[in-house]
Amino acid sequence: MYPTAQLLENLHQQTEQHLQKAVSEWQMLSPERLGQKASPEKWSVAQCLEHLNIYGRYYLPAMEQAIQKAKQRNSQATPTFRSGWLGAYFTGLMLPQTDGKLKTKMKSPKNAIPSPAPDPRAMLAEFIDQQETMLRLLREAASVNLSVIRIPISISPWIKLKLGDTFQFVVAHIQRHVVQAEQALQLDRQPTGQVFQRV
Amino acid sequence: MTTNDEMQTALAHLRTTTRQILPLPEPAWDDFADIWQPFEATRKVVLTAEGDTERHIYFVLDGVQRAYAVGDDGRDATLVFTYPFSFSGVADSFLLQQPSRYFFETLTPSVFLRSTFRQLDEVMLKHHAVERMIRLAISHTLAGVLVRQIELQSHTAEQRFRTLLTRSPHILQLVPHKYLASYLGMDATNFSKFLGSVRV
Description:
Chain A is mostly helical. Helices cover 54% and strands 11% of the residues of chain A. The relative contact order of chain A is 0.22.
């Protein structure tokens, strides 16, 4: 149980960090770099982004519609939010551990597996669009009830998560694959903070 | 939360900028400095919407913003980017106190000083030097708008791209490229191709 405002603020900040990375780093890389795979069975940055975009294409409109409908019904924000057990479980599965490593190796559902060579520029542009949409939805969510509004999960229309949990799960999922994308790039960092590619 | 130190630093930037336009005598500067308040906004916040009358004049301390129009086809046309340390807001709506034709939004988290039309008007009435300074600032802005008109008519997309980069080399790393493409009247794919050619 925590203050709703704090929850939304944290998610906003995480999304802002994801955007910063996409805009100031990934935008500056060549499409070839974004499409490079560290090894045959690992995903490139572009594939990580396609995977995230597939989820975003479902969840963002679903959350948007739910928020709009709730506003029409005069939904009211509540000061605190408590995760449902399933929402908390999904979010927990997604998050990297404190050392940055990913906890469980998970197989994506079939329809969320990225294509072998997605267009890197298009995937990055869509990812950026989706994060901007996420920022907007987080702001709009501040005025509705994050517990009562429920969103069906993408793999089953009968299982619904609280809106607050959906936001958390989706942002945690994004964080997971942002970490994976960083690993795909294998960037070396100099002490001054400048970024060089490992040759 | 803006500390006193932060406010002093902010005002120092404001003074530097206005000094470059026209140095103000101390009493005029003091009254001018008094009308500004700190203000912040996160990314993608629309500060002024089409149809609103722009109440505020902004001075940018951090971040990038843009003014844009939405066409009948629903597509954005970006008018201008603003960044530190320039004035911002919808200039014509503010100066004329008429409904804005444009949207004004943050493209990154932004930090400003801002004031209101009423406060600026009062200080301009009290100090002729402030009115002069504002008039000169507007003249420079007008000169820039005319230059851009000619660029749009007679420069190739590539020339306009290089001009943008010369004026603001960091902008590529600060904002999503779709906004730069919109400003240049290019579609996003063409812009990426130009980016590829410039990097080499």
